[in-house]
Amino acid sequence: MAYSPMTYEALTMAQNVEQDDITKAAVILAEGKLVAFPTETVYGLGADARKESAVAKIYQAKGRPSNNPLIVHVATVDEIYRYADVESSWNPAVVKEWITKLTPLWPGPLSIILPRGVEIADSVCAGGPSVALRIPRHPIALALLRAFKGPIAAPSANPSMYVSPTTAQHVRDSLGESVDFILDGGACEVGLESTVLSLLAPTPQVLRPGAISLDTLRHTLGCPVEGPLSSGEAQTGELLSPGLLAKHYSPRTKVRLRTTISQGERLPEKTGALIFSDWKPNFPTTVTTVLSKCGDVEAIAARLFGALRELDQADLDLIVVDTCEPIGLGEAIMDRLIRASRQ
Ligand code: TXA
Ligand code: MG
Fold first, then answer.
1. Mutual orientation of helices 214-221 and 92-102 as an angle, nearest 10°?
2. Residue 342: predicted pLDDT
3. pLDDT at 244
4. Element (H, E) at 115
């Protein structure tokens, strides 16, 4: 996806965020409080990544299990080196070369896992030896990072297990009072969470698919990259990425993929359908939402979570979702849908 950075002037004209709001948000973060802010993927719930007491508020507001580490947002590659401890990598020279090769993908929807640096609070890393870092490309996120002048730990700004927020209203709806300030940057451009790539072993591994595809990473790094565990594979024992629980991203209403519905099966009276293609449901529906008529994965990703939230509020007994080819961004879409449809 081509990206042309907006100037701050363009940003303030396009979106209703003033420099005053950015300054205020940075002060609130410095006070150890929570600020929700837009990124190009989803809205993040931010806190100072160096302050245990601030990070504790994130876990509390989200009801997030303490064994699920957070992504740290920074503004520059220099800060990646500052907040990770690349020298203690399995091979510092190779890892530095990988980071250099990945640099053209930032700012952007890619998080990398590295050995953690000393400044990051223990709880950000769930007490573990590694840290996830990314440079987001949303102009408001970057402006906030520059004003705050420090690392911002930010998971998606939703209650644990629920659908990630792609508008400020989604954040208000589900976290409301527990957030001290919300920067409203309109709807997120990508709509799905960042690709998470571990650099902790000789073969880099994608832990969570996102807008930066496996092919792009293989091409950019010029070496083999392992794909994510399929969302169908139950993770047991020590989790590679504790956030990748089999069930996740779920509306409260039951979700099924259309490929699991058998011909002539009787579905509940109040059934909704979410359509990405030329599929025409052959069962009665109460509500139908069309995200694309031709499988346009960028359009589907951008509106997917918002559409799931809307259908979740439509008092349905079942949401049947369309499927797409699990390639490129389609892999991330199907990953989220398979998890949302788990019981
Ligand atoms: O696009 C995104 O990544 C958004 C925006 C706000 O940046 N953030 C986000 O954060 O999706 P969260 O917390 O919802 O997901 C973070 C994922 C989880 O699956 C978590 O387990 C994984 O990253 N993660 C974080 N630190 C890790 C680590 N040290 N090792 C392995 N996985 C890690
Ligand atoms: Mg999340």
1. 120
2. 86
3. 55
4. strand 110-115
Contact status, residue 79 vs residue 120, Cβ threshold 8 Å: no
Domains of the chain: 8-221 (3.90.870.10), 255-341 (3.40.50.11030)
Residue 5: predicted pLDDT: 47
Q: Kindly list the distances between the CA atom of residue 56 and the CA atoms of 29, 68, 154, 261, in Å, as whole numbers in the listed order.
A: 13, 12, 12, 42
pLDDT along the chain (343 residues), means of 10: 45 65 97 98 98 98 96 98 98 98 98 98 98 97 97 97 96 94 96 98 97 97 90 46 62 96 93 96 95 96 97 97 95 95 83
Q: Residue 182, Cβ neighbours under 10 Å: how many? A: 23
pLDDT at 246: 57
Tokens of 242: 């504790």
Looking at residue 209, what DSSP letter applies?
A: -
CA nearest neighbour of 36 among 131, 197, 173, 132:
173
**Protein residue with least CA distance to atom 6, ligand 1:** 44
Q: Do 51 and 122 form a contact (C-beta atoms < 8 A)?
A: no
pTM exceeds 0.90, yes or no: yes
CA end-to-end distance (rounded Å), the chain: 34
Q: By C-alpha distance, which of 225, 198, 202, 200 is closest to 214? A: 225
What is the pLDDT, as a whole number, of residue 236?
Answer: 42
**Ligand 1 binding site (Cβ under 6 Å of any ligand atom):** 39, 41-42, 44, 68-71, 109, 111, 113, 125, 128, 130-132, 136, 154-156, 193-194, 196, 207-208, 241-244
Residue 207: helix, strand or coil by DSSP? Answer: strand
Q: Which residues surround ligand 2, an ion (CB under 5 A)?
A: 156
